[in-house]
Automatic annotation (TrEMBL):
<comment type="similarity">
    <text>Belongs to the Mo25 family.</text>
</comment>
<dbReference type="Pfam" id="PF08569">
    <property type="entry name" value="Mo25"/>
</dbReference>
<feature type="compositionally biased region" description="Polar residues">
    <location>
        <begin position="373"/>
        <end position="383"/>
    </location>
</feature>
<dbReference type="InterPro" id="IPR011989">
    <property type="entry name" value="ARM-like"/>
</dbReference>
<dbReference type="GO" id="GO:0035556">
    <property type="term" value="P:intracellular signal transduction"/>
</dbReference>
<dbReference type="GO" id="GO:0043539">
    <property type="term" value="F:protein serine/threonine kinase activator activity"/>
</dbReference>
<protein>
    <recommendedName>
        <fullName>Conidiophore development protein hymA</fullName>
    </recommendedName>
</protein>
<feature type="region of interest" description="Disordered">
    <location>
        <begin position="364"/>
        <end position="383"/>
    </location>
</feature>
<dbReference type="InterPro" id="IPR016024">
    <property type="entry name" value="ARM-type_fold"/>
</dbReference>
<dbReference type="GO" id="GO:0005737">
    <property type="term" value="C:cytoplasm"/>
</dbReference>
<dbReference type="InterPro" id="IPR013878">
    <property type="entry name" value="Mo25"/>
</dbReference>
Length: 383
């Protein structure tokens, strides 16, 4: 009789985690993979019920807490992050759900202002999990579930710091939060820098998801990103301009130009913007975008071009290009995207730029940029 009663008893979270870990080790073996995949799907489905509950029964905080502790003790999140591309489709979706819930989980007694326990665990003890999630973009099967998990994690600035500052190679230990050195320039071979190629060279679905994550990294935590861009200015914008703005993909090119405009026009990035618009090469790139065959590329390029023209303290290099091209610009701009007559802001901005170009001196004038939040200090760093 005891046998029949025990059959209905739900398994403990720790048992499910241990079984899942053992099965994950088996799916890397092609001979054992088919049987392991089926059983893994069942285990992950049970984990999803624990963290999410059912329409009839809400999740138990104690059960979820036990599951979170077991995943940390067994290092299950690392195994999941590096194996997700091998899982069947539904199991990948369940992994995405379980992972995201675990990242957000706070015990009842936990202070709301503190990062969730698993976030702290990742940045101080197991940052390799975050790096492996980024490397999920190397496989089309894992790109989107890893992207969803990453964007959940990137809500926390400490996770963004790991992605930005890690420079480990595959198989090496990733950087711990305590080892992050914001003022140290990057080599350009860490996991963050691989997003440029994942966006530019992947299939459409992977590229689109990688871009969404990349944009989150660049725009969500402003003070962190402003410092990073100032320190790594030349390397970042060389990659951004040469890979993303020059991309053969229309979608990548258009989205990247729009993102560039957002970065430059964000007040938090004032010093970065001033350094960018001092470059004659950057201006030449924007002027080429104005003549692109595709109108939306022209339109997004215009919003970057206007930053150069509207800057009251233009560098000599920028002045020289605008002065040398003054007549052509004055003929070109009034007719530029002249079908956007219902866009009053665009028409006003275009008229303003025409007036600014008309007022340019005959020869470049060397000006000293005024001080605002000590931009000269930042310029010395990024120049």
């Amino acid at each position: 009789m005891a046998f029949f009663f025990n059959r209905g008893r739900s398994r403990q979270p720790a048992d499910i985690v241990r079984t899942t870990k053992e099965l994950l080790s088996r799916i890397h073996d092609s001979q054992n993979a088919p049987k392991a995949e089926e059983e893994l799907a069942k285990q992950l489905s049970q984990m999803k019920v624990i963290v999410q509950g059912t329409p009839e029964v809400p999740p138990s905080v104690d059960q979820v807490h036990a599951l979170v502790q077991a995943t940390i003790q067994e290092d299950l999140l690392f195994d999941l992050s590096r194996s997700i591309h091998l899982l069947p489709f539904e199991a990948r979706k369940d992994t995405q759900t379980v992972f995201s819930h675990i990242l957000r989980f706070r015990p009842n007694s936990y202070a709301a202002e503190k990062d969730p326990p698993v976030i702290s665990y990742l940045v101080h003890h197991r940052p390799e999990i975050i790096v492996e999630l980024c490397r999920g973009y190397m496989q089309s099967q894992s790109a989107m579930p890893c992207g969803v998990i990453l964007r959940e994690a990137l809500k926390f600035d400490v996770i963004t710091a790991i992605v930005l500052y890690d420079q480990s190679s595959e198989g090496e230990s990733a950087i711990r939060l305590s080892d992050v050195k914001p003022n140290q320039r990057q080599r350009g071979d860490g996991v963050f820098w691989r997003f440029f190629d994942w966006i530019d060279k992947s299939c459409f679905e992977v590229s689109a998801d990688a871009y969404t994550t990349f944009r989150d990294i660049l725009t969500r935590h402003k003070s962190l990103m402003t410092s990073y861009l100032a320190t790594n200015f030349e390397l970042f914008f060389a990659r951004f301009n040469n890979i993303l703005i020059h991309s053969d993909s229309y979608v990548t090119k258009r989205q990247s130009i729009k993102l560039l405009g957002e970065i430059l026009l964000d007040r938090a990035n004032y010093n970065v913007m001033m350094a960018y618009v001092e470059s004659g090469d950057n201006l030449k790139l924007c002027m080429k975008l104005l003549r692109d065959d595709r109108k939306m590329v022209q339109y997004e390029g215009f919003h970057v071009f206007k930053v150069f023209v509207a800057n009251p303290n233009k560098s000599v290099a920028v002045q020289r290009i605008l002065i040398n091209n003054r007549d052509r610009l004055l003929r070109f701009l009034p007719k530029f995207l002249d079908d956007r007559t219902d866009d009053d802001q665009f028409m006003d901005e275009k008229s303003f730029l025409v007036r600014q170009i008309e007022l340019l001196p005959k020869e470049p004038v060397d000006r000293t940029r005024p001080t605002r939040d000590s931009p000269s200090a930042h310029t010395a760093t990024v120049a």
